[in-house]
Amino acid sequence: MSESVVIFGVGKGFGFSIAKKFGEAGKTPILVARNADQLKQFVKDLSNDGIIKADFIVADVTDPTQVTNVFSKVKMAYGIPETMVYNVGDKTLDTPFSLPLDQIKGIYDTNVFGAITTTRQFVGLSDDSKLNRNILITGGGAAFHPTKDNATLAATKAALSDYAFSLHDAVEDDNIYVGLITIQGLSGSSEEMQPDNVAKVYVKAAQDRSEREIKYPAKPSDF
């Protein structure tokens, strides 16, 4: 097994910082998102100092075939990855009546079914229970703070939390740690919420492999 980390949903905020902090911890981050140009630049930025070796794969997590391709490429180039991070999220705000049903379905596909697709495939990469592997899922405080203005976001984050808890119990005996990182603030809104500080929580969770859910920051804000 390689010490690679497959990160689904790498953007300018938390995703890039998560990749950087895992790279600084000696892991090989594999960045996955839909924007090829942005991913190329991220890998270039990570590799500038010569310390972090990073790679990227373009894929849409709502397409199971593309997810299969991601893991096939990673396994071929790096071996079975040690950790996967699901950091994908559509944060569209809506009322219970403001969005058409097809758009709501698209948000569920991104926020919930994408997590199911990626984690199932990650778990299926190996049946060796002696391997220490990790799944880290980015949750959101909206799951516990539904309002009339965040109807679909809150519902999908609640569903994602329930899925993460079920998955944790289902694979625990297979030596796969599942940790839900529930983000309870807005990026950059405080020192705690600076992306690099948030990213450290993911690295520590993968090292400790203990808590089923980590709420960060401990005191909710911005809700």
From TrEMBL:
It comes from the Bacteria. CDD domains: SDR_c. GO terms for molecular function: 2,3-dihydro-2,3-dihydroxybenzoate dehydrogenase activity. GO terms for biological process: siderophore biosynthetic process. Gene3D superfamilies: NAD(P)-binding Rossmann-like Domain. InterPro entries: DHB_DH, NAD(P)-bd_dom_sf, SDR_fam. This is SDR family NAD(P)-dependent oxidoreductase. It comes from Fructilactobacillus fructivorans.
